[in-house]
Fold each of these.
Amino acid sequence: MEKRYQVFISSTYEDLQDERKEVMQALLELDCIPAGMELFPASNEDQWSLIKRVIDDCDYYLLVMGGRYGSCNDNGISFTEQEFRYALDKDKPIISFLHRSPENISSKNTEQDSEKKQRLNSFRELAQKKVVRYWTSPADLGSVVSRSMIKLIKQFPAIGWVKADNVDDVNSAKEILRLRDRIDQLQRTIDEQSTRPPTGSEKLAQGEEITNMSLIFYGDNRSHYKVACKLNFVLSWNDIFAAFSPYLVNEGTEDEIEKSIVEMIKTKFLEEILNFKKEEKMSQLYAFRLDSQEFQTIKVQFKALGLIQQSLRSRSVKNTKSYWTLTSFGDHLMTQLIALPTNVVNDEKFPG
């Protein structure tokens, strides 16, 4: 949408007429609307009220300073400085253009009054606390203003002015911005809620609470007969979730979930399994799996806790496997359980 920005030009007048022409030309070439109230005699409260309204309506404020302090109000403050301080109070984007070498300005365009000279120097110091650029001639000033305004508009985007027939577009743009803000707000709410358990899950077994888990397998006895075996172990729900959750970061099959839990149990209770093998005089143990009913309970439990969900990714009709993936809350919990804190080295050695 095409916008035009209104720019208030503040300066003394008699000594900077050529410079003001260059500034106005530069602004017009940038499709800006120049405005400057120093052309009017700001000698009463009504006139000052008008100046303030014009500054309020402007998008940007430019100060051009040469060697004159200018006409002053009853308090001894020049009208130019009064305008600058008002724009400063209103937080208008301000850029000041100061003569690079004021000592080289002709005497007719410099202050002769010592008090005004002192006030001019103080005003110059004040202006240098905001964005400032320097110039040496009217043509140089016009070039500096062009480059500086482009950067100022990019750095401080303003509302600007549009043609009346574009008002609907403006309203649409405002509505789009409002909806975007609302979407961002809702997304932040979703992100916050995604790291929290679902309502009611606090009544379910979870975390460091324990549950019984059966490991079913086969063993060959001394007579080389195949014997069905079963061992019971006590695990926390966090132990179980930490075992299989990394395999669901993308998605994983139920076989992969069961296998990861089985491997965790075999590793965690290796000594007990080896003692069983020795006591029962088994030559080998193999075909480890979970009790099917207990495995179904695991899936239901973690689904109810809001940690896993069935994957909805499309796949071949021939692929009849069940796939699961982590929820946002599940991914958050997995990270908390598995990620290593700083300066921790995992040097645990498992028996072979």
Amino acid sequence: MNYRHAFHAGNFADVLKHAVLARMLVHLRQKERPFRVIDTHAGRGVYDLGGDEACRTGEWRDGIGRLLGGRGVEARPLNALLSDFLVPYLEAVAGFRAVHGQASYPGSPAIARHFLRRGDRLLAVEAQAQEFAALARLMQDGRPAKALNLDGFTAWEAFVPPKERRGLVIVDPPYEAPDEFARVACGLEMALRKWPSGSTLIWYPVKDGGLARRFIDRLTKLPLGENAWRVAFNVGARANSPEGLSACGLVLINPPWTLPGELNAALHPLGAILSRGPGVKGSCQRLAARP
């Protein structure tokens, strides 16, 4: 696969995914027992918003650019509720930029690592050679994180449950291969069987509404339990301006019990900030297994 996230880093989908990731990690830190984060498709972990790829698409301007500004983009004001919701995420971005420069943006492994305490661990998995080389360099600073060059789905099955029996799996494949939605569904079925108490965050694009609906429909046939949720987010589209991805979703397994309510309160103001045109929508609904 030829997917390179550098073209899309910091876009609206990253904002949603990384804000939710940060909230879940803050919750894991509330207990003293250590936890492990497994990022199955970690990417390179660091992105240059001033680089050629990011400049060619400019997607970050309608994402993190709306929140923090920079490079000719003016930040938009946040209401108090949304500001509180985004605090952990924006603190992680600020901490990363303090080290890597104000034009940098952290991928999910870098955000996850920001929240690790002594004793917590991160396993960041990436299969593509170039992306893995950058990820491995990022992880070479002595923190409790390891980069692994391996197929993400193979790693997901191999490393759950973690020995800590607490933690979070992040699943965010490129969705370029025809079978990737099916592989995610199979992976989740495996994870629910091997580690039913584990937390999982799955991101997926909504390019084809029918494909996304079939994916969610397949998940409802799994033994999801009572704490499974689907997040839908659409930032709308400008008239007569094809701009690629404008909608995405998350599947959350065993998130903090407070998170669905927080999301339903935050998604509307977040959509207003990131809006690109009519059709902005956001919701967090229970994903119930079929009887």
